Amino acid sequence: MKNNIICRNCGGVYPISDYPDTTKLFFCDGCVEKLKAKIPDPDEVVYLSDIINSPSHYCKGDIEVIEVIKDQLGDGFYDYCLGNVLKYVCRAKYKGRSYDLKKAQVYLGWMING
After folding, report:
1. Whether the Cβ atoms of residue 26 and residue 5 lie closer than 8 Å to each other
2. CA-to-CA distance for 114 and 109, rounded, in angstroms?
3. Which pLDDT score, from 0 to 100, does residue 85 have?
4. Which residues contact 3 (CB under 8 A, 6 or more apart)?
5. Radius of gyration for the alpha carbons in the chain, expressed in angstroms and rounded
């Protein structure tokens, strides 16, 4: 399922696949920096960086799913990340370009930092 979410400040449209909660306010990262003091209830706001770095559907228990994957794969985690980098880069042109490239960047960071 593909949803478009719209920044409540600038009107920027972000095509986010499988975005679980479209009822919360959404601000792109650029607007969050400008509006930090004016955001009414931080618990009712979703930020683009949160969707990319720590999606709520992967954080339901005491440990984030990526940590379980890293633990179980050991040295294979690097290859797992490489596969995801390739996936997100290859599909970026056809899906959510900015979102997919930022997701690829997250996986690259895990590859670089271990």
Report:
1. yes
2. 8
3. 96
4. 15, 16, 17, 19, 22
5. 15
